[in-house]
Amino acid sequence: MPMSPRLLRPRASGTAVHPEVVDWAARVTTNGGSVSTNTLAAASAFCASIDAAGIRDRFARLNLFCGSNLAACRTPLYRATSLAGTQLGNTIDTNVGPFVDADYVETGGSGGLKGNGSGKYLSTGLLVGGAMPAGIGHMSVYAASAQSAGSGNFRYQLGAGGQIYLFARDGGTTAGLAWVSGPAAVFTSVADITGHLVGTNNASNAREYFRNGTSIGSNSATTSAPSSASEFMVFGRSNQANVLFDGRMAAYSIGEPMTASQATAYYTAMQAFQTALGRNV
After folding, report:
1. What is the mean predicted confidence (pLDDT) over 156-182?
2. How far apart are the C-alpha atoms of 102 and 98, rounded to whole Å?
3. Residues 174 and 188: beta-carbon distance below 8 Å
4. How big is the CA angle at 217 (ends 163 and 49), to the nearest 5 degrees?
């Protein structure tokens, strides 16, 4: 007699593992990592919340920076706008610098991946044209710690070339979102922002910047579409060593634009995940 499919279904803490987490965990194993029962449950709850909010199609790439080691941390959960969709970008975030095992901690108050501001970044292989075919979209990071004090230069958390990026000024009071050119940026006067940061460009003249589900800035200047050939990088917007973020990061995402209610729903799901791993800010 064949075994019941129910008996074959992976489970975490007594609950069935979400299909996208099953797929992710298999890729983590292929990359030389593993996933704990607690992380499986937290990631499954995250995916279920994203599905329930109806925003799964907003994500071309999303990485929760979790799992047993650096290779697991660099394995993205989502690589398309659906599990069955065309997979985009690198199968694992390319380690440039490189980051070392000591830069990554999965859980607790020091959880996440720590940048150094001078050479370490991740290359996604994802192009603007793949993630945002219409030239509009969102970028997001979960900054578990701030950019350190320094000369007051802009430091880039996530971006594509000189085109679009999330940034924080080191030792200063400015952070925000830029889309194609300076006049089209959203600047906020909040010192070294941490938490869940979402920058979205919903039209050529509609940019908005959210922190922890709440809008903290917008800009309606008209701008052109970014170059479709620019590649997204994490902890920077290019390979220039003097613009890299040195804070601790606990997630990022790239994809289609979000409304205010979608950004709030995304924050709710993300914060629950970070809390489950004990690394919320």
Report:
1. 85
2. 11
3. yes
4. 85
Q: Is residue 238 part of a domain?
A: yes
In a domain, 43, yes or no: no
CB 246 within 8 A of CB 236: no
Q: What is the pLDDT of residues 3-53, one digit of tens each?
A: 233 333 455 555 799 999 999 999 999 999 999 999 999 999 999 999 999
Mean pLDDT of 151-166: 88
What is the CATH classification number for the domain harbouring 221? 2.60.120.200
Which residues, 6 or more positions from 54, have their beta carbon under 8 angstroms from its beta carbon? none
**Total Cβ atoms within 10 A of residue 52:** 11
Separation between Cα atoms, residue 1 and residue 17, nearest integer Å:
25
The pTM assigned to this predicted structure is 0.93
Which residue segment(s) compose the domain that 221 sits in?
57-276
**Residue 21 is assigned to a structural domain of this protein:** no
Distance CA 233, CA 245 (A): 11
Nearest partner of 176 among 221, 136, 219, judged by Cα: 219
Q: Whole-angstrom Cα distance, residue 27 to residue 66?
A: 13
Sequence-distant (≥ 6) Cβ neighbours of residue 116 within 8 angstroms: 97, 103, 244, 246
Distance CA 227, CA 34 (A): 37
Is 107 among the domain residues?
yes
Task: Calculate the alpha carbon distances from 41 to 22, 100, 196 in Å.
Answer: 11, 27, 21
Contacts of 148 (CB under 8 A, 6+ apart): 117, 170, 171, 246, 247
Q: How many structural domains compose the chain?
A: 1
CB 67 within 8 A of CB 28: yes
Q: What's 56's DSSP letter?
A: G
C-alpha distance across the termini of the chain, in Å: 51
Per DSSP, helices labelled H in 31-146 are: 37-52, 70-73, 128-131
